[in-house]
Amino acid sequence: MTFTECAVRLSGVVAWALGWTPEVFWAATPDELAAVFGAASGEAGGGAPPDAATLTRLREMFPDG
Hints:
Layout: H1 3-18, H2 22-27, H3 30-41, H4 52-61
C-alpha cells in the first residue's frame, strides 16, 4: 500500500472515529494524532508536560480556553 493510500484510509478512520474534517486531519501533526489515539486507547504515556512556549502557542491557537 502506498503512502497516499494509507493516508486516505487513516483520514477516513479519523473522520469516522473522531469526527474530524479533512482540514483538521491534515492540519494535525503525527504526534497529535498519536496522542489522541493513545488517550482513546488508554495507552497515553505520562510524557513530559508541555513547556511554556507550547502553552503560549496553544493559548494563541485556542483563545477561548
